[in-house]
Write a structure and sequence with these properties.
Helix content: 25-40%
Strand order of the largest sheet: 3-4-5-6-7-8-9-10
Shape: globular
Largest sheet: 8 strands, parallel
CATH architecture of one domain: Alpha-Beta Barrel
Number of helices: 19
Distance between the termini: 31 Å
CATH class of one domain: Alpha Beta
Oligomer: single chain
Length: 556
C-alpha cells in the first residue's frame, strides 16, 4: 500500500512531447457542436440524433454560439484545451474560424474525427495553418471490417491515407477504438498501425450504452470481458513496449491481471488523463442548451454548488436506495390508492439514468412495490434519441397534454426550475415533485465528506480532487454501474466503477473477482501511477514536476 507515494517519478523525453507517471488533474474541456456526420457507425452514441434531420441536436450550432461557450470554458472553468466533437467536426463550415478563435483565447484545439476528409493533403495543410493541435482519430477497425462498422465502402482506405497526410504535414494524432465484437480480432493490427504511424496514444473504449448506443446492444454483439482481454492484452503489451500510451475505458479492474491495471481508466481515473475532460466544465457543456443550435445558453453553474446539491440525494439514501425519501413521500400521498386495486401513474421528467435510480428505489419500497405504473420518461426534445429508453416510453413534454399521470417526478437538479415553470404553464404544476430534497443551503464552498463508502482520506489530495472523485462516483452510480458480491469484498472497490448494468443483465457478475490488499484503496491514482502518459510541450509548465525526486530519461 506504500506503492503510490513512494513511487519514483519518471519523465521521458520523446519527439516533441514527454511521457511521465506523474499524475495531476486535467484541464481539458469538451464541446459538442452538432450531430451532423458523414458516417453511420453501428455503435454510435448518437444514432438517432445523426439520422434525424429534425432532432434539436442534429444541426451544427452557429459559430457565435460556439465562441460564447469557449469563452466561458476559459473564463469560468480555467480550461486550456478543448475536444471539439460532433457528429463530424471536420465538415462544419466554420471549423477553421473556430480553431483560430480557440488559439486566440488560450484553448488548445483537438478534433475528434473519423478523419475521412483529411485524405487530401491540402485539407490537412489548411487545418495546420488554422492552428489545430492534434486529431483524435476513430480507428474502430481496419479494411473491410471498418467499412462494415461505419457502413461506408472505402472509408478505411480514406482514413489510412489521412494518417499518412497527417504525418506528412506534421500534425500529431491519437486513436480511439470502440471494443465491439467485430474489431476484437484486429486489436493487434490497430496497435501495430499506431506504432507504425506514430500515434501518441490509443484509447480502447468498452461498448457500453451511453445515449443512443443503448438501443444497439444485443446479446449477439456484446463481447464478454474475458473475450476482450484475450485479444486486448497482447495489443496493450505491444503498445507499452513501443512507448505508446494505451488506455482502457469503462472496464472493471478485477478482470485484468495486475500488470494491465495501470491502463484502466474508469470515471475516477479519467480526470488524471490530460486528454480527457475535467468535471466542472463538462457538467455545463453536456446540458442540451449547450448542444443545440436553437436554444439560448444556460447559466454556467458553480461546480462546488453543483456538488453540494447532488449530495442531498446521495447522503439521504437509506439502505443503499437513492431517493428513498420519494418512496416514503408517495406512500403517504397516495395511501388510499395503495389500499385499493388501483396503481399510481407516474411520469419522470429529467435525466433518464436518474429516473432508473428513482424507479429502483420505488421498487425497493415494500409499500409501493407493484403499486405504481411508469407511464413514461419525459425529456425535452433535445435529449430524446429514441422511442424508448431503459425499457420505458421516452416522450417529450408535449405528450403530457393528452396523457396526464397522477404524479410527475422531476429528476434533473440543474433544470428543476425550468421544468417546474414549464409544468406550471401546462397547468400541471400541482402534480410535480422534485426528487431532490429542498434545502436553503446554496453554498459554493466545498468540504470533503465521507458519507459514501467509496470516499476516504487520501494523502496529498487537494480539495478539487476530492470534488472530482465525488462527482465521478455520482457518474458511475447514475449511469449506472453495479457491484456484485465479489465487488463488496474487494479492496479497490472505492476506485472502480464496477460492471455496467446492461452488461450485468446480459452476462452477469461471473467474471468478477475480489482483489485483496492489506488496506482499502481510496486513491484513484493507485494503479495509474504506474502508467506513462503523454504531456505535450505546451503543458510542461503546469503538468510536469520539476524537483530532485524526478528521474529524467533520455530520448527513446
Amino acid at each position: 500500500m506504500e506503492r503510490l507515494m513512494t513511487k519514483e517519478i519518471v519523465v521521458i523525453d520523446r519527439d516533441g512531447y514527454k511521457l511521465t507517471n506523474y499524475r495531476i488533474p486535467c484541464r481539458r474541456a469538451t464541446l459538442w457542436i452538432g450531430q451532423t456526420c458523414n458516417l453511420r457507425c453501428k455503435f454510435c452514441y448518437y444514432t438517432k440524433m445523426v439520422s434525424d434531420l429534425e432532432h434539436p441536436q442534429h444541426s451544427f450550432m452557429s459559430i457565435n454560439k460556439i465562441k460564447q461557450i469557449c469563452k466561458v470554458l476559459v473564463g469560468k472553468y480555467n480550461n486550456n484545451s478543448v475536444d471539439i466533437e460532433g457528429g463530424e467536426p471536420t465538415i462544419y463550415k466554420d471549423i477553421h474560424e473556430l480553431i483560430k478563435y480557440c488559439n486566440e483565447i488560450g484553448l488548445k484545439p483537438t478534433l475528434i474525427t473519423n478523419g475521412l476528409v483529411l485524405d487530401k493533403t491540402e485539407t490537412c495543410q489548411k487545418f495546420k495553418e488554422s492552428g489545430i493541435y492534434d486529431f483524435l482519430i476513430s480507428v474502430h477497425a481496419i479494411g473491410d471490417v471498418y467499412d462494415e462498422i461505419v457502413q461506408v465502402k472505402g472509408a478505411s482506405a480514406r482514413q489510412l491515407k489521412a494518417l499518412d497526410n497527417l504525418i506528412e504535414t506534421g500534425i500529431p494524432f491519437r486513436f480511439n477504438t470502440v471494443l465491439s465484437k467485430e474489431v476484437l480480432p484486429q486489436l493487434m493490427d490497430v496497435a501495430k498501425l499506431a506504432v507504425e504511424k506514430g500515434a501518441r496514444a490509443v484509447n480502447f473504449i468498452a461498448y457500453n450504452p451511453f445515449n443512443d448506443q443503448s438501443t444497439g446492444r444485443t446479446d449477439e454483439n456484446i463481447p464478454k470481458y474475458t473475450e476482450i482481454i484475450e485479444k486486448l492484452a497482447p495489443a496493450l503489451d505491444y503498445l507499452d513496449e513501443n512507448f505508446i500510451e494505451a488506455n482502457v475505458r469503462y472496464l472493471p479492474f478485477c478482470v485484468f491481471e495486475e500488470k494491465y491495471r495501470k491502463f484502466i481508466q474508469n470515471f475516477q481515473q479519467r480526470v488524471y488523463d490530460l486528454h480527457e475532460w475535467e468535471s466542472a466544465g463538462e457538467v455545463w457543456t453536456s446540458a442540451p442548451s449547450q448542444r443545440t443550435a436553437s436554444d439560448e445558453l444556460s447559466e454556467p453553474p458553480d461546480f462546488y454548488k453543483h456538488m453540494n446539491n447532488w449530495r442531498k440525494a446521495f447522503r439521504g439514501a437509506k439502505d443503499g436506495a437513492l431517493y428513498s425519501h420519494i418512496a416514503e413521500q408517495l406512500a403517504e400521498k397516495f395511501k388510499s390508492v395503495i389500499e385499493s386495486d388501483k396503481k399510481i401513474g407516474i411520469c419522470l421528467f429529467g435525466n433518464p439514468n436518474t429516473n432508473m435510480q428513482v424507479v429502483n428505489s420505488l421498487n425497493s419500497s415494500p409499500v409501493l412495490k407493484d403499486k405504481f405504473e411508469i407511464k413514461a420518461f419525459i425529456s425535452s426534445k433535445a435529449y430524446i434519441s429514441d422511442d424508448q429508453i431503459h425499457g420505458y416510453p421516452w416522450m417529450s413534454d408535449e405528450w403530457l397534454a393528452e396523457n396526464i399521470p397522477d404524479i410527475i417526478l422531476i429528476t434533473s437538479y440543474a433544470h428543476k426550475s425550468q421544468i417546474k415553470n414549464l409544468l406550471e404553464e401546462k397547468n400541471l404544476g400541482k402534480l410535480a415533485i422534485s426528487v431532490f430534497e429542498e434545502s436553503d443551503d446554496e453554498s459554493n464552498e466545498y468540504a470533503k465528506e465521507f458519507y459514501l463508502p467509496e470516499m476516504g482520506e487520501i494523502e496529498n489530495f487537494t480539495e478539487l480532487e476530492y470534488a472530482y472523485k465525488e462527482h465521478r462516483l455520482f457518474c458511475a452510480k447514475i449511469n449506472p454501474y453495479y457491484k456484485g458480491d465479489k465487488c463488496q469484498e474487494c479492496s479497490i472497490r472505492p476506485i472502480c466503477d464496477g460492471f455496467h448494468k446492461d452488461y450485468v443483465e446480459y452476462i452477469g457478475f461471473n467474471e468478477a473477482k475480489s482483489i485483496k490488499l492489506d488496506k482499502v484503496v481510496y486513491d484513484p491514482r493507485f494503479y495509474i501511477s504506474d502508467q506513462l502518459k503523454v504531456v505535450e510541450k505546451e503543458d510542461y509548465e503546469w503538468a510536469l514536476p520539476y524537483n530532485a525526486d524526478v528521474k529524467a530519461s533520455s530520448v527513446l
